[in-house]
Structure prediction request, 586 residues.
Amino acid sequence: MKKQREINYNAHPFRVFMSFFRPHMGLFILDMACALTASVIDLVFPYVSRLSMTELLPNRLFETFFVVMAIMFAAYVVKGVMYYLITVLGHRMGVYIEADMRHAVFNHMQRLSFSFFDHNRTGVLMSRITSDLFEITELSHHGPEDIVISLLTIVGSMAVMFTIQWKLALVLAVTLPLLIAFTLSRRVNMKRANIEVKRQTAEINASIESGISGIRTAKAFANEKTEDDKFTEANERYKNSKKSYYNAMGGFMSGMEFTTSIMQVLVITVGGLLIMRGELDYIDLMTFSLYVSTFVTPVRKLSQFSEVYMQGTAGFSRFLELMRTEPSIKDAPDAVELRDVKGEVEYRDVSFSYGENSAPVLSGVSLTVHPGEKLAVVGPSGGGKTTLCQLLPRFYDVTGGAVLVDGHDVRSVTQDSLRRNIGMIQQDVFIFAGTIKDNIRYGRPDATDAEVVAAAVRAEIHQEISQMPDGYDTYVGERGVMLSGGQKQRLAIARVFLKNPPVLILDEATSALDTVTEQRIQASLDELAEGRTSIIIAHRLSTIHNANRIAVIEHEKIIEIGSHAELMEKNGVYAQLYRAQAFTED
Prediction:
């Protein structure tokens, strides 16, 4: 994997932006050299034209004139080559920078905590790493070269014009700051409007992502009209934000067009006055007119660049906002690697809630799971069973108390080493778009094909895979859409078999299986749990008879704990649940 460079994203945005140019400095310098060459050629032509009309043609130096024209022809060929290189190399550099930024933001998102994804929609995040970054590409490509070409051409033109007739040049020099002041005054409104456009674009993407992902549910409930209404609402907000942006841009472009066009009028008016006074001749006025055309072109380019600038800086602002978002769960500065795990898990007076204003999910829970012990956790939905398990791999941090593995507070060890030693099968199994082999190997990316097959055998899915058209190379579709619920669940179980961790968390791992398949796979799960610390959340209580202990969670606390026989003898909440479920199943 490509190593990420260390960048201080809290530094000034310009410094952060320029830090992405450093790895591609060779391309950047070549791009700027081409831009510089093209600008110099543009500056030379009006001066050569004046020289030809004042010196070469009047003095009948025709041979020299044609040599000079041939040189200018060659110069414009060179200019064409320069613009080819600017286009190719500049865009290539922009794509490289975009790819680096996308890698950086994706890598950063991988380190953000569960709570971040609880509050941010997938489509919005996708927009931030696709469309926003594309516009940064345009800025990183066109920005430096347009500024270099434009400033050099403007400054060079002004310098030459002052040598010809300072009074006429002064008129243009006074007009230019007014143009710049106007540009700066409109820039803030355009940027603000563009950020809103990006926000609404992200909402559109989120709406599309949600609509496509849930299309089967929408069709099942005949709710296509509802989904269309939600999309239409988001689309209208996008259209309104675009209207505001185009209003701001329209004011900017109209003012820019007026200012640049009036320069030619000023040149002819003031130049005519100077001719009347005998302070300027027609050749110099024509030369001025050529320079104004050379002068106005980069001004127009800057005005066009302003839109790229607004879109790019708006995208970069959103990029920085995301990159400056810190994970809510971090490794402590002195965090150590968790090694040689025996598997003792302790919940010590644990309390937890999902936010300051949220109701507590767990309160004062104390529990020890000994190495190799199998603990089942049961209770009503919403009672805190899954939350209890998610605190162990530190998906969330406790709000009170501590969770320990082998006596180490999970907050004192690195998250990577902690999670490498924990295998987890969650209720909502996620299958990646790819092959069956890829999905099983996700449990241990360096596993051999033989080890993948062995894991599938133990998960009771090898036979079904063998009957598929492409065997282990069968493509499973988006989110495993081409597999049954039971097959997806068994692939997830095979991943954990392959990972072979000392601590297991099974969050209703067999919930998608029919009774016959569940009984068949239960033996494999029992084998996997043998000699390992296992915490099992179970809906069907008949599957946890052989657990060493069973904990019943209700009203934020553990209200009962003991073996199946002990809890049945106690005749409490567990016994009532078990009898009710047995009666229902009968």
